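Sequence in, structure out. Go.
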Amino acid sequence: MNSVLVLKTEITSTTVEFISDYLKNEKSKTVAICNANTLVRSYRNSDIQEKINSFDIKAPDGFPVAKASKVLYKNNQKRVDGYKVFHETIKNGIDSKLSHYFYGSNEKVVTLMIKNLKKEYPEINISGYKCPPIKTYKELCEKEFVENMLEQDADVIWVALGFPKQEEFILMLKNKFILNSNIGLEWIFRLFQEPKRLFRRYLIDNFLFIIYFIKQYLSK
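Output:
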């Protein structure tokens, strides 16, 4: 897959449909849904930057990221919306009984989400979920917190632990255990939980993203 450098993150040139098929047909792959917040944090922290760039797909979620890719590289990149990736993957996997496992967030949010998903997609194959306690990503990779996930061996694991904890958790999980699952991110869980705090963060990071983008654009 082709990728382009936006700020300091290697953003994959891709589409919602491609990622949906990728999650359906591939094994042991990792997908990061990258918005302006992701790229700004990666720009300012080399450790986070290295971890994000190690994912198999870094999808350009958010208008600023997709637009930056298009302006810098004339590639007609469109936004790869995390919400659309989530739903397209579910719809795309119905016929093949693609199984889904949800890890993170809290009981109230996840059970409500599952209830709504079953209404919208009656044939969805949900193998299970886990809402772990608040721990570091290293602690969450201990067997007691991931045992059920490993036993279920779902085709796709959706992780919602907050950025960058969820990315760190995913990479450690993949390195520590043998996984046949693909692992994706669904940051919408977090927005449901903390809309005001996250709105302020995204507003600030979108501003910083523009500053860093102008710097990259002028350097070219």
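Check: Confidence is low (pLDDT under 50) at residues 187-193. The chain is about 55% helix and 15% strand.
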